[in-house]
Amino acid sequence: MCAIAGIIGLPADETTVEQMLATMNRRGPDGRNVCRDRDTTLLHCRLAVIDPEGGRQPMTLNWAGETYTLVYNGELYNTEELRHDLLKLGHSFSGHSDTEVLLHAYAAFGPDCVEKCNGIFAFAVWEEKKRRLFLARDRIGVKPLFYARHRGGLLFASEMKTILTYPTMEPAIDETGAAQLLLLGPGRLPGSGVFRDIHELEPGCRAIYQEGRMVLHRYWKLRDREHKESFLETSECVRYLVEDAIRRQMVSDVPIGTFLSGGLDSSIISSVCAREMAKKGEQLKTFSVDYLNNDRYFQANKFQPNSDSDYIRIMTDYLQSDQHLTVLTPEALDEVLEDATIARDLPGMADVDFSLLAFCKQIRNHVTVALSGECADEIFGGYPWYRDPAIRAQAGFPWAQNTADRAALLTPAVKLDPMEFVMDAYRKVCRESDVLPGTSPDERRMKEMVNLNFRYFMQTLLDRKDRMSMYSALEVRVPFCDYRIAEYLYGVPWEYKDYKGQEKGLLRHAVGDLLPESIRSRKKSPYPKTFDPRYEALMASRIQALLADPSAPLWNLVQRENVETYLAGESQWPWYGQLMRKPQTMAYLCQLNFWLRDNKVKLEF
To answer: DSSP character for 171?
Structure first.
């Protein structure tokens, strides 16, 4: 994994290039290089995972009269299949990196190469003679890629902080940016970077930039199909796809491990990895997180019915893994609030981000690559909002049914209608959902729910995973994001996914023999959070200091008196998802204030 950036058709002196590279170092500490071609500059910082010697970037290839230069962040999981196809076309290779294979694939197939790639990626290819830039992002959106059309040229980068470092870029937000922060945050509109003039290349999209013109193309989306397989045939196919995705994502020239929460998804991944490593006489490293005194303060609720600790012990005993436990204190979470905001470039998911940032820093002491269980819930229908008929039937984003509460905080200077803003975004995704004619209303709704999760909630989680891990140069892979799993499951009827009325029932059936029964049948529990009252007290102390500071930049975006009213009670709905209750909402507002101040954000409304 790496950090990439580019400056096209704009001045790029040494100071500017060095400043941009400095923002990229955390993602790529193993090497930094620059390639210049007249008014084009490509930047790369590398985290070496495959072929440390042969995978250096920017990488250049002369082929069929054209000179191609690639900067790439990601991992291909079908490298050998692609290499085999390219060898038959006359290509040859000097190393075994996926970087070299991807560059040759672009030279051979042009923009269509992305449709031949199974992996997580964001990359750019500069064609010297055509003076043309190609940009692409993986189907699911695991790896980030942002861009800005600026003063007749183009800037692009893995993270927005790199783009904002360019001397004439201004960190500003307009009404739409402000509305996203307060009405959708920590989610955001697809394709938006929240900052004015900064956009994100959406998942499954590619772009060509030439002579000042940019053309975007969506090469992949979830497509409905007629599902003819029986339940048992479907279960067998799911088993194959899941195991194959995990095995492919174990390929590495550096040490790997797995996240292990004791939940279904991480336990499946850990079980497959442990078995594969045992064949080579190796022991799997597993990594878990807990919170000091959570055994004392844990409170079971609808969203989090049980704590992880007992289930982690069951799995580590079952796997005989080399287990590493990180125990975090409320103070440790409080200490990284600012770092987590810097890592994400935006306010995030509060202590769900803070804990992951601190956790990944500890994991990086042991491995460079880790596999994690994100996105199974979106694909297999594991979240409560898939399964609660009342929430499912209600219009709006099911993980944020609190627009009225949020709108009351937003400054009156933002004139757009909050409810219409949110509902327009919601309805757009529903309209775009691909559904076969004749599909029942219930099945249509479930496909809309999958797309809502894919386009919004899952992107927030993938943002979180990428930024919090890469801040410590840890590559985290997510096997359930294999696009083949997503494509197949989209056409599978809900009655199969909901087998025996249990969340992710189909997945549980498919992998039953990989897990102890207590894990296979465990009720879903989300990423753990602290229940220690000291954490809420720390966040309350931060908020009180903010409320006492009339010059805090937050009050240019949020109404101070309404914040006091809102925090005096407990909202019926979490701020976002399942975990962001009052302490996390306070943390989000503190992050927002820090973000405004640290970036010197201009409000243009």
So the answer is: -
pLDDT level of residue 548 (50, 70, 90 thresholds): very high
Asked if 156 and 198 count as a contact pair (C-beta separation under 8 A), the reply is: no
The CA distance from 497 to 507, in Å, is 7
CB neighbourhood size of 160 (10 A): 25
Taking residue 486's Cβ as centre, other Cβ atoms within 10 Å add up to 21
CA 500 to chain centre: 31
DSSP-based helix, strand, coil % in the chain, nearest 5: 45, 20, 35
* Amino acid letter for position 311: Y
Question: 10 Å Cβ neighbour count for 604?
Answer: 12
Cα 132 to Cα 74, 138, 146, 206, 402, distances in angstroms: 22, 20, 18, 13, 45
DSSP 139: S
Closest CA to 567 of 530, 591, 536: 536
**Lowest mean pLDDT, pick from 61-65, 98-102, 474-478, 574-578:** 574-578
Going 238 to 240 to 243 to 249, the CA torsion angle's sign is: negative
Tell me if residue 328 falls in helix, strand or coil: strand
Q: What pLDDT score does 304 carry?
A: 57
Block residue for tokens 């929460």: 261
Q: Indicate which residues carry an active-site annotation.
A: 2
Q: Is 539 exposed, middle or buried (0-12, 13-18, 19+ CB in 10 A)?
A: buried
User: What's the sign of the alpha-carbon dihedral 220, 221, 222, 226?
Assistant: negative
State the sign of the Cα–Cα–Cα–Cα dihedral 507, 509, 513, 517: positive
Q: Are 449 and 498 in contact (CB under 8 A)?
A: no
pLDDT > 90 fraction of the chain, expressed in percent and rounded: 89
